[in-house]
Amino acid sequence: MSKQTAKNRPVHEIRLGRIKAVIWENDTQSGIRHNVKISRLYKDGDSWKDSNSFGRDDLPLVEKVADLAHTWIFTHGGEAAAGDD
């Protein structure tokens, strides 16, 4: 795998049921920062797609994957400590 290919891949993914959080790492002048994309997976015919729209019953899992993503980012030390914003 080339360096460029590795750079375009998420550093971590969390999935609970149909809800998925993908964590991306960005190297900035201030150090490593992470962005998180949360989506809902669904099947359209034979192919899987994702949406950033959530129904009422999706929200508890959205909360859980967001919490797990937050924990993963802090565990891996890529963000400044709280209050350093």
Task: Chart the SSEs and their pairings.
Blueprint: H1 3-7, E1 12-16, E2 19-28, E3 31-44, E4 47-51, H2 59-75
Antiparallel strand pairs: 1-2, 2-3, 3-4
Notes on the structure:
This protein is α+β, with helices and mostly antiparallel strands and about 80 residues long. Helix content is about 25%, strand content about 40%. It has a 4-stranded antiparallel β-sheet, with helices on one face. The longest helix is centred in the last third of the chain and has 17 residues, at about 60-75. It is globular. The termini are far apart. Residues about 1-5 have low confidence and may be disordered.
Short description:
By secondary structure, this protein is α+β, with helices and mostly antiparallel strands. The chain contains two helices and four strands. Mean pLDDT is 87; it is low at 1-5.
Strand order, sheet with most strands: 1-2-3-4
What's the pLDDT, averaged over the residues? 87
- SSE arrangement, N to C: HEEEEH
Give the proportion of residues in helices: 25-40%
Morphology? globular
Straight-line N-to-C gap: 35 Å
Low-pLDDT runs: 1-5
- What portion of the residues fall into strands of 2 or more residues? 35-45%
Total helix count? 2
